[in-house]
Amino acid sequence: MGNNNNETDKLYIQGLLLVIIGPILWAINGNVGSYLIKYKGITPEHITMLRLLLSGIILIIVEFYKKRQEIFYIFKDKTDVLRLLYLSFLGLMTMQYSYFVAVKYSNAATTTIIQSMGPFFIVIITSIRAKKSPTKNISFALIFALIGEFLLVTHGNIDQLAITPRALVFGLLAAIGLTNYNLSPIQLQKKYDTSLIMGWAMLIAGIGFTICFRPLSIPIEYSPSTILGLSYVVILGTLIPFISYLKGSKIIGPQRSSILTLSEPVMSTIIAVLFFDESFIIIDYIGIAIVIFALFLLNKPEKAKLI
Fold first, then answer.
1. Which among 188, 174, 156 is positioned nearest to 119, based on CA atoms?
2. Which of 42, 129, 247, 269 could pair covalently with 36 via S-S, beta carbons 3.0-4.6 A apart?
3. How many domains does the chain have?
4. pLDDT tens, 110-146?
5. In this structure, are residues 98 and 168 in contact, taking their beta carbons and an 8 Å threshold?
6. pTM exceeds 0.85
7. Residues 6+ apart with CB under 8 A from 244
8. Is the pLDDT of residue 96 over 80?
9. DSSP character for 133?
10. Radius of gyration of the chain (CA)
11. Is residue 168 part of a domain?
């Protein structure tokens, strides 16, 4: 019995670490993307196309060499194809493109806090499906995390958000995309490997996006910093965190995973301070402390549930 409990604990910790990798790399990615858009002439269309297409191609090539006989199995079931298309366009593409458009019209920190409405949607949807209210711990963790984020990115002053209508609309679209990204792969992951699902979803979304938005018609001036930034966006900002996050989410569940992503604004702000000469004031530290407290509150009861 004790061994089973230990194995359960180890699995939970593994899932937790896999999920946390996502916000860390995404926090860096948001700042890198903001830099490319504002200083290197790269558009949200360029970033979205490259993230989806290149990441999808890499994953499919890897899966082809690992399990070439199973690579097209997902297309044999019409229901699975519809789920894959939903994940591709209403999950991945919506989340990624809307996020960087919102960054273009505001900044990474503001966009991230708007996108953090996603966990609200996830908690509501999963609660409706389960026909029960969210637990008190989940509810309080979400409330505290959002309060901490608010203090962190606004210095406690709502006027400092300076949200333009476009930034607000695309930020909320990114939140909807985040919700779909968390919830739509659940059934697919019961039948197929996460890497295969993500590979096809990214490739399909990338092809569809390229056809619709035609980012190739906009020239890019390549420089060493631009190439380095785009390389990060594709590999460390997309490929690794998306797979890691979904695998972790499969273990600890979409509600807990989505709330853990609320640490992303904290990390994003820290990165901005270290690399973009931003500065902290006392209210920022209070916000960080509240978010950290929320994460502890979220995780305190989870082991008991799994034992």
1. 174
2. 42
3. 1
4. 787 778 778 778 877 887 888 877 778 778 877 888 8
5. no
6. no
7. 18, 19, 21, 22
8. yes
9. P
10. 19
11. yes
